[in-house]
TrEMBL record:
Keywords: DNA-binding, Metal-binding, Zinc, Zinc-finger. This is THAP domain. It holds the Pfam family THAP. The lineage of its organism: Eukaryota, Metazoa, Ecdysozoa, Arthropoda, Hexapoda. Residues 16-79 form the THAP-type domain. It comes from Popillia japonica.
Amino acid sequence: MFGVNTNMDAPKQTGGGRTCSVRSCEINSRRNPGYSFFSFPKDETRVREWIENCDRRDLLHKDLTTIWRSHYVCDLNFG
Ligand SMILES: [Zn+2]
């Protein structure tokens, strides 16, 4: 019953688990508990830079509070 979830269109944020916002990255805190997740910066200009780096222009339509509260980037995308 609990096989691999192949539905890639499922909501990314479920049950408090954190999912990386980078489009090409599939790290999430439940499957990949070893990764750290970083909240978006509090500076709006830098938020836009992160969104560009994430290739997630869809996030430009969300308000900043939502982005700060429910979007993260994992440490795989840093360094
Ligand atoms: Zn990531």
